[in-house]
Task: structure prediction
Amino acid sequence: MTRPPGVLEAIYRKRAHGGPMDRLSEGSLVAGKGLEGNADLGGRRQVTLIEAEVWEALAREFGHPIDPSARRANLLVRGVSLKETQGRVLAIGPCSVRILGETRPCELMDQAEPGLRNALSPDWRAGAFGEVLEGGTIALGDAVLWRDDT
Result:
């Protein structure tokens, strides 16, 4: 029996390092590069992901909503746990991303919300980063699932 897939809830593109995050309804993942138009193309950290459930728990801890774009991740997913998934391959719509590691929160988190950097630090709460293996167009509502769970 296969588990129901997760879903892609948000796509964010960073125009410049430290710059604003644009929310997109669809985007293109480019194999070996990352999210088209994003300031961080290529390298090891091609795409970053966070879990909607973790973000909602953080908002409850802070006692008020916090826009997920404050995390500065490219993809917000629901229904898949990113914790300790290094080496696994995640299918997002027609694309696939190999998780390379845990994203470490930077000082920009505290500029968005004082204390957010420390709150994100334990247990992969800041999400994961990976490399795009198969590119293509992704859109809000796309299925998200681990390739080895199918």
The longest helix spans residues 52-62. The chain is about 15% helix and 35% strand. The chain has a mean pLDDT of 92. The domain at 6-149 is CATH 2.40.33.20 (M1 Pyruvate Kinase; Domain 3).
